[in-house]
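Task card 7
Instruction: Convert sequence to structure tokens.
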Amino acid sequence: MNPASPGRRARLFAPATVAVLIASPALAADAVSAGDTAWVLASSALVLLMVPGLALFYAGMVRPKNVLSTLMMSFIAMGVVGVQWVAFGYSLAFGSSGPLIGGLDRLFLAGIGPDAVSGSIPTLAFVVFQGMFAIITPALISGAVVERIRFGAYTLFILLWSILVYDPLAHWVWGDGGWLLEMGALDFAGGTVVHISSGVSALALILVLGKRKGYPTEPFIPHNLTMTLLGAGLLWFGWFGFNAGSALAADGTAVLAFISTNTAAAAAMVTWLVAEQVRFGKPSALGAASGCVAGLVAITPGAGFITPGWAIVVGGVAGVLCFYAVCLKGRLGYDDALDVLGVHGVGGTWGAVATGVFATVGAGSLITGDVRQFGVQLVGVVAAAAYAFGVTWVLAKAIDATLGLRVTPEDELAGLDQAAHGEVGYSL
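Output:
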């Protein structure tokens, strides 16, 4: 998804060209491909479908009194970030070149009309595709803080987080002149920008917010795993747009990303269930849902660079690694309610590192003798994680000191559906 210049694309990614766009649109300078445009628009719709899929995935794992609240925490991102992206988010991420953040030259998409073309698609198609990524990323964080965060404070948080964390990271990795892009970091579809950032940000936020009342002595049992499995299925389906759509063309790179995505998800689900069988004696439905998502996360940064055979390895390792990361939270004592750090943070980190190990299509890696690429991947992981954690910590502290992040003990006990929204998910 890197909007790099044609020369830089050839140097970094040929023959499997990942980016076909530049940040500044050209007016009728390039021919529009109907097929590429249709694929990018369809992929944009698939990525947006992941948001209600995520909402269902998360909502099935909470208690009945918080099901609507959990759903709303995903849905509100479609509204808040949907407006923010058009107003100034896109400009901050993909505006005029610079190493740290884009400029303000594309506020409200100034200068980008229906005739503006980038590569083989209208520039507006690129804008909308990238906007879907901007929407789902803060929604991922919500799974860590469900059942005890104030809805208004959370809404403000995702707005400010998108401006201060997501947009700069997107520029570092994909924006024209971004310093990680210039270094040669590989992130095909958002392992660093989306998953590492959301995972470590979730940790920072829950450390400020605190644990749920009764955690970990009281049981917090998922109330509707059929809902969670449906959500996982929608996420798997939408992820084809997430990863294969990041080729930004209906071509062989998109096909490679598609099959590698499916393969990694399948492998991770199997290894997660095997790990559960070994540790607990039974494979669970929740494990199947979590495992496939772990594989999808892990293959995201390398989907267009890693062949299906190596995708089995990436996904298989992710299933076991994320399973034990989730198990570890009990010993470490932090209350990541729905395992955002364990799945997205750990899975995204492994995927970014694995890209530096197993990439063979259009990029080098350790197995091709490219030690430098492996080092660059490590730099990207550390920089993104440190920046996201630090900024999120400060942001959470500021909101907590002003508005207050946490609901009252009475509201937490009653449930946030009624307390925050005046509704209930079930009237039986």
